[in-house]
Amino acid sequence: MESFNRFILDAKIMEGRKLGTFLGVFTPTVLTILGVIMYMRLGWVLGNMGLQNTLLIVLLANSITLITTLSFSSVATN
Predict the structure, then answer these.
(1) What's the predicted TM-score (pTM) here?
(2) How far is residue 13's CA from residue 17's CA, in Å, rounded to a whole number?
C-alpha cells in the first residue's frame, strides 16, 4: 500500500512539469535534422563502421525518433 501511495504522489508531482521550449521544440527538431543528415550519409557510415555498427546506430536513431514522436503526441493531446 505504501508503494501505491508513493506512486500517486509521484504522479501528482509530475503533472505540474511541462517540456518547455528546449525539450519540447528545439531537441526534437534537431533530432529530425540530424536524422535526415544520417540517412543521407548512410552509405559512408556503412563503409566506415561496418554492417553491425551501422545497424546499431540506425536502431538507436529510430528509438530516439519513436520516443520523440510519442512525446509530441503527448504534448498535442494535453
Answers:
(1) 0.49
(2) 8
